[in-house]
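Observation: inputs received (chain + NAP).
Thought: call the complex predictor directly.
Action: predict_structure
Action Input:
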Amino acid sequence: MAGSNQRSCKEYQGRPMPSKVYRNRCPCSAGASGIGYQISKQLVLNGASAVVIVSRTAAKAQQAINDIRKETGLEDAPLGFVECDFKYLTNLTQGWKISKHQFDTLINCAGITQTQGLLTTSPATVSEILKVNLEVPIELSRQMLKQYFMYGKSPWNDSTGDSRRPSSFCVINISSLLAERGGYGTSIYSTSKAGLTAFTRTLALEGAAIRDKFPALPPFRANVVVPGYVDTPMIEKFSNAQKDKLVAEIPLRRYGKAEEVADAVMFLLKNEYANNTVLNLDGGLSAT
Ligand SMILES: NC(=O)c1ccc[n+]([C@@H]2O[C@H](COP(=O)([O-])OP(=O)(O)OC[C@H]3O[C@@H](n4cnc5c(N)ncnc54)[C@H](OP(=O)(O)O)[C@@H]3O)[C@@H](O)[C@H]2O)c1
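Observation:
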């Protein structure tokens, strides 16, 4: 997994700004591409006071920031980034300084797919998929729980000068329908995504246990979105024949759009009763 290639992660470059928020600080893994990009954009449009895009490439993250600013017309949109390759992280607490920054929202969206059956999937690839899709989201969620606990002991003032309390702390994990449905050549991907759903359940309970210790805390919530097939770079590699076959299986006869998944995430962030919600967004594919 990690080994000699370990990279250091550049410090968050953002400019947090005061704004009317329902969310304060939101690290969004995969925020520079596909679904994560649309989530970052929606967070900005919905008044988040700092959105931190996580990407393996600084230039890609910066491009995403420029694009979001252009597309939303919000030139001062409070976006920053962390350059970070989850594959090489051995110690997130040291490696990713994001834990220094207080955040009340975490979007775990980074994911890699598997392209072969188990017989030809190497142990190194197995480790890589589990690391990026499951182990890192778990570690980031631990950081989030830690922040929640610390907030219980001593609520922080937002360094933007906005001292309003977050209405809740919320983790959103992006799973996949393949966590629930078989697919040739997806054994490890499916395992990682099923793990993420199972993990979310316990996270919701452990957040509640912390609040029992500090009743003045705002609630802690953890939720999962379960997309079917979404039109993003992730499925670009499929052959036309594969794409046609998949579309024919989806009752709505089309792929989902990244914007539609981002909408589901916004719903879960805004709806303060959503906790351990597993939101399927698959055009009906799960019914087949
Ligand atoms: N598209 C679908 O049909 C579909 C269906 C169900 C679930 N999902 C899930 O949705 C999430 C987003 O995928 P997408 O469809 O938007 O595809 P995408 O555009 O290919 O995005 C994948 C993202 O994962 C990030 N990533 C990959 N390896 C990483 C690593 N080692 N370290 C840090 N970040 C890494 C990439 O970040 P950078 O390239 O910026 O470094 C990229 O932003 C994934 O978790 C995926 O499993 C997708």
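Thought: report the result.
Final Answer: The chain has one domain: 10-231+258-280. Residues 1-22, 93-99 have pLDDT under 50 and may be disordered.
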